[in-house]
Amino acid sequence: MTFIKANLVNIRQRSIKPAHIYIENGQIVNIKYVETFFNRFALPGFIDAHVHIESSMLIPSEFARLAVVHGTVATVSDPHEIANVCGVNGVKFMIENGKKVPFKFYFGAPSCVPATHFETAGAGISPAEVAQLFESENLKYLAEMMNYPGVLFKDKEVMEKLAIAKKYGKKIDGHAPALRGEQAKQYISEGISTDHECFTREEALEKLQYGMKIIIREGSAAKNFEALIDLLPEHYENMMFCSDDKHPDNLVEGHINELVRRAVARGIDVFKVLQAACLNPVEHYGLEVGQLGIGDPADFILVDNLEEFNVLRTYINGQLVAEKGKSFIKSVPEQAINNFDTSPKNHKDFEVPSSDFRKIRVIEALDGQLVSNELICDAKLGVLNFVNNGTEIVGAMSDTERDILKIAVVNRYQNVPPAVAFIKNFGLQRGAIASSVGHDSHNIIVVGVDDFAMSIAVNLLIEAKGGIAVVDRTKKKNYVLPLPVAGLMTTEDGYKVAKLYADIDKKAKALGSKLKSPFMTLSFMALLVIPDLKLSDKGLFSGKEFKFVDLFVE
User: Fold this and answer.
1) Alpha-carbon distance 327 to 325, whole Å?
2) Can you give the residue ranges of the Adenine deaminase C-terminal domain (predicted)?
3) What is the DSSP letter of 275?
4) Is 126 helix (H, G, I), strand (E, B) or coil?
């Protein structure tokens, strides 16, 4: 038996009392309250209420190594990224790898694989497979229902999956950006209980009033903390925190602890903040995560104070897993799983011959947001080639002066021509950047100043079977971070990956990008379920109209 001396923070009772906490066989077996206060506080561990582990580029066991340092003891994890590549086998890979370390991963059954039928994914997950996952893996919930039009129009497969979740008594996570009014009510009425996609206070408040729980998201790309945090004092019982997508360099810096610190610094009651960060996910999803009660699993953290929340120690099931910035979780060997079948591309594959029209639709990327805008701009035309009689072949080209660059999505599962369009705000002045992390089907996505650089970047990833790449033709240098696990993750040491990612991120910014996280922003430019204008491997897609649209317009 071991015991810990600390000021025990009881979130349910809203109390702080000095105590001796006795731990045996992974559980808290006794608590003795004493008179003298200590210089440290024991509180339940932090929980990320919605995260795609794959976005860290780390397998779950490595994610855990980095997260525990910040006091995170559990995650509510949606494995739909790897599911889009490898199907049920990918989900099982995540579950089994997560079991190899002392950390509490709670995975859901992906609900939208593929996310839409307007793109090519590597796999699908049927209603029968959702039921199989609930039966064989005891998953906690049906992961985010991104196909909100399918809910509203009662798509057969969507409704089957919702019915299966209800049959097994599982919570259903939502995903309904900008859905308001009667449509939001209808969506929620189908049993969908959460949303992490709210990016305005008004939208979040409306959904809270309709009975939804709102998860405040602050990740590497989407950052909604500032917009939503002022709702917490009144609605703390129905709010949680999440990262959604967290790149490795950001995970090294902090996790849910950062959001707790920022919320308390705004003057929000510490118990309300901790309820959102520690307790609400446990109660909503039914997680087996301790809350510092007798008989609970010994999952808790020690911090130096309740303002900065500097984590001194992290315990999971009574095991010390981190202390003063050092993780005690060991790396575990793992075999890669993947799905990659396309041939190298030629620069001519990225040419855009012009039509009779001279205006084009342009995706406007927004820094720190998953949503994009649709712009109509004049195309920059140039000579692509000459036919035998000397006639010029004219096409649309990247325009660095107006920051309108080519973007392409390359199907990685079939050998077919890429889809090419244009995007604004990436800021590249030379070269190209590419990634096989392209939500949600994870085809290769590339942005570049010229077709040669784009083809080089894509071919680097085809050769590596996935990863992220930077091509600087001016300096004649190429950089690649291989991601051999589904083209999304690596089995390498998490701290090493964080450094490698930070380095390649700097290389991308050296090409001229002013985006805070160019690779993260790039990865969402193929996410069709987020409006307004996105690009799939099949063409330009309007998230507002939910249909394909032409590149050239009158």
Assistant:
1) 7
2) 397-547
3) I
4) coil
Q: Which CATH superfamily is domain 46-288 in?
A: Metal-dependent hydrolases (3.20.20.140)
**Token match 């190899």: residue?**
100
Per-residue b or e along 51-84, where b marks 16 or more CB atoms closer than 10 Å to that residue's CB: bbbbbbbbbbbbbbbbbbbbbbbbbbbbbbbbbb
Q: In angstroms, rounded to a whole number, what is the distance separating the alpha carbons of residues 546 and 523?
A: 20
Torsion angle of alpha carbons 77, 83, 87, 89, nearest 10°? -50
Q: From the first residue on, what is the mean pLDDT of each consecutive set of 10 residues in the chain (554 residues)?
A: 96 98 98 97 99 98 99 98 98 98 98 92 97 93 94 96 98 95 98 97 98 96 93 99 95 98 99 99 98 98 98 99 98 97 96 86 90 95 72 88 98 97 98 97 98 98 98 94 98 98 97 93 91 96 92 92
Cβ neighbours of residue 163 closer than 8 Å, sequence gap 6 or more: none
**Integer CA distances (angstroms), 551 to 288, 407, 434, in order:** 50, 12, 21
Task: Compute the chain's Rg from CA coordinates.
Answer: 24
Residue 405, SS3 per DSSP: strand
Q: What is the DSSP letter of 186?
A: H
Residue of 437, 537, 418, 428 lying closest to 482 (CA atoms): 437
- Where b means 16+ CB within 10 Å and e means fewer, 358-389 reads eebbbbbbeebbbbbebbebebbeeebeeeee
